[in-house]
Amino acid sequence: MVLQLYADPITINCHKVLAALDHIGVDYKMIYVDYLAQQQKLPGYLRINPNGTIPAAVHDDLIITESNAIMQYAADISGNKGAEVYPKDLKQRAIINSWLFWEAFGWARSNYVYLVQNVLKPRRAELPDEAALAREQPRWLALANVLNNQLGKTKYMIGDTVTIADFAVMAPMHVHTLQKLPLDGLPHLQRWIADMDSVPAWRSTSAFS
């Protein structure tokens, strides 16, 4: 059975998975779940993913409900191209896995503050909470400097080619202009963002192209 992906490209985690699948060349079918209409909370979808979040992937009798795990699995079932974005070498995998955890448990949360305040609130005709942005900025800059320092050493997250770590770390910034991220003084990060925005799979799967 072809891999089925329940997703809405408008979300951070769906965009990362869609981009990775397209980049790898995985044969998949996207089943649209309208995030803004809260379709991910409907009983039919909750039978697939009780967490009520998207994306979720179904492949034969396997259900995967975490975006980074979907990328890992997709790479592992995809032969040589999958091995390019998620190498079989255990040391390289450990480095990539570290960045996946870094993104999920820190970077994504910090960027989400900018998404809520500068993107979602204006969409609802609400003003951003400037105090919330001011509180978050030191945390965001600390994380961004870690990223900037890494990208001063490598073109992409772990070397000269795109891996699933790049899709994961880029995803929380997928509307970076609208988020109004404080990118001044982070030249390597700015260069990498421009490079990622030019990756065909990233660009073609964006809901904001």
**Named CATH architecture of the largest domain:** Up-down Bundle
Strand count: 4
The count of helical stretches stands at 10
- Counted up, domains total 2
Q: End-to-end span in angstroms?
A: 31 Å
What share of the residues lie within helices?
Answer: 55-70%
Give the uncertain stretches in residue-range form: none
Mean pLDDT: 97
Spatial order of the strands forming the largest sheet: 2-1-3-4
Q: What is the name of the CATH topology of the largest domain? A: Glutathione S-transferase Yfyf (Class Pi), Chain A, domain 2
- Top-tier CATH class of the largest domain: Mainly Alpha
Largest sheet: 4 strands, mixed
Shape: globular
Rg value: 17 Å
Strand portion, in percent?
A: 5-15%
Structural class: alpha+beta
Query: What's the order of the H and E elements?
Result: EHEHEEHHHHHHHH
What does this structure look like?
With 209 residues, this protein is of the alpha+beta class. The chain folds into 2 domains: 3-84, 3-Layer(aba) Sandwich (Glutaredoxin); 87-204, Glutathione S-transferase Yfyf (Class Pi), Chain A, domain 2. It is built from 10 helices and 4 strands, in the order βαβαββαααααααα. It has a 4-stranded mixed sheet. Helix 1 links the parallel strand 1 and strand 2 (28-32). The longest helix has 34 residues, at 90-123.
